[in-house]
Protein 1
Amino acid sequence: MAILRSKGKLDISYVPSKVLCRDREIQTLKTLVESGGKALISGEVGTGKTLLARYTFKDAILVNCFVNRSEHAILERILSVSRPGFNPSGLPSRKLWDQIPDDIMIILDEVEGISIDDLNHFLYTLSRRSESGRKLRYVAITRDANILRQMIGDNAIWSTFAEKAVVHLRPYRHEEMVEILRYRAEEALYEGTFDDEIISLIADISLNSEGHMRTGIDILRNSAILAEKEGRDIIEPEDVRSANLDIWLGGLERMDRDLLLVLLSMARASRKKAYLRMEEIEKIYEMECELRGIERIDLLLGLSRLEEEGYVSKRGEKYALLIPSKVLIEEIEGLIERSDLF
Ligand SMILES: Nc1ncnc2c1ncn2[C@@H]1O[C@H](COP(=O)(O)OP(=O)(O)O)[C@@H](O)[C@H]1O
Ligand SMILES: [Mg+2]
């Protein structure tokens, strides 16, 4: 009984053999670095920035600037890879710069992590060096080029560092997420352990989270682990919903009675299914209303309100629940018991 064929292929640091949906961006990145020796990748969390840089420049030295925050620490990290025998301790940064080989490529990930005291000096020295024909090439990565520009605050430094060299990665759309997740699932999981609806549900949940593709890969891995733990060899919709770690239920308390009932019906109907047709929800909703002697509301309207609140996602004519149905049913039943709304 197994689902995961190769768990390591879903690690954040794993570089897959194909990077889908970013052909144009990869081409631009290559062109920029070949012609000018530098580029800045921008984009929100989980848009594939780190992957794109690592995939495009396989021999580059990767420095995470949230881990190595000072100029000295960054240079030490670069030297530890490019000159493993060299001992930089006790030497000032200036001396370390002298030791950096000319012909290397650096990836400065999360460049906004550099301490504000060192940021300008480091970027200035770096870009001057790259411009002076010494062939030091770099790709810097940031979540937001405008914020970085403001942090730098100096137009001259900004323009030698990154001007006209920004590659922006917009968030993936649903169909792109599906294509990427399917490919990653085929690489890492056994055949027949997931279906198209599972992949689409992971994409829908990820689109509703801040982590985008990062959330997507996490959910893929965690849902496979959950299903395996339960002794199944197939991933079910509830595994996917439960694998999402940023479940948020804070909105339930202030939800009105009618909407709570629509959500409860949706949850009951979703136990074994990823996506539901309107009629499938309606059947259960009618029963719930009858049972409690409550007038029905317009279901379409109810569902679109739930969509706005982030509990439900509409895909074509169907609806997907994004939160584990078990958790929701328990919560809502608890609320109903405690409240005098019913
Ligand atoms: N186009 C893609 N093809 C395949 N996997 C991708 C793609 N984009 C992102 N990923 C995967 O999604 C996750 C998040 O990507 P990452 O590069 O860490 O994003 P960022 O650095 O923008 O936060 C990683 O596991 C990465 O391998
Ligand atoms: Mg990253």
Protein 2
Amino acid sequence: MYEKALELIQKYDTVIIHRHSNPDGDAIGAQTGLWYFIKANFPGKTVFCAGDDPNRYSFMERSAPDIIPDAAYDGALAVILDTSSAELISDSRWRTAAHTLRLDHHLMLAKIADDEIVDSSYESCAGMVADMIRESGLVLTPECAKALFTGMVTDSGRFLYDSTSPRTFGLAEFLTSSGFSRDGIFRSLYANDFKNVRARAMFVLNIKFTPNNVAYVYTSLQGFPSYGIDAFSLSRGMVNAMADIRGVDIWVNFTETENGVWCEIRSSSKNVCPVAVKYGGGGHAKACGATLPDRETAMKLLADLDEMSGE
Ligand SMILES: [Mn+2]
């Protein structure tokens, strides 16, 4: 499955690895994991990681983006990881590379790169990179394995989400057999600052329900500062505070920002992605999102989810 990807990585002297902006553990894990893989197996190559601030994932080794001169893209291969739409790719210079390759596990929205391997049966993009390495038979170093394992853990929700498959566990065995220490990974990923614990408590008190039991929280621009956390931590970070409410199959978190209403949709059983796509967003079947222009549009999206929940 990964012959073409491996062939391209072998062919180009410079490889620049891109991921989505506002990175999660999978975006960083897949990116840095691929960086370690190329450096270990093709030491003569120049390899860069492009992107924006890794924020809470800055504990991951090599997560800080490299400073990349424009000239590096001349004749280079740009590898795009974990990203389903071109606008979400961090650092738009990927377009100036000689050739582009994409590995992604989101639902296919549109062709972006010259060569693409898109397979939504993978729990994580890090898992795809791990599978590519396993298929290659080349060297897997402990640093590489640790990065990929961290990505796999975050996107599978600690092997909880139903995207977790026998292949996931097989790849986890492959990665953990390299001998890196798992000490600290889970603590770094899941330890919370008290301000987040406090914000989560406030958030839970603001949960509301539609007639058909869609749980939701709408945070206005005025209400937002009282949480004392950034918009991303509130939007993406809090949505799953609604995950385990009995009788709730769909939940959605709306966060008003200066750049529109961020909307994070989750479901335990339904494919909610078409609703996100209808409003210009995308993602996975049971975890997706969109940025909406205003509260009115947000309430329309909520009504669509309510209808789906009632079916
Ligand atoms: Mn991912």
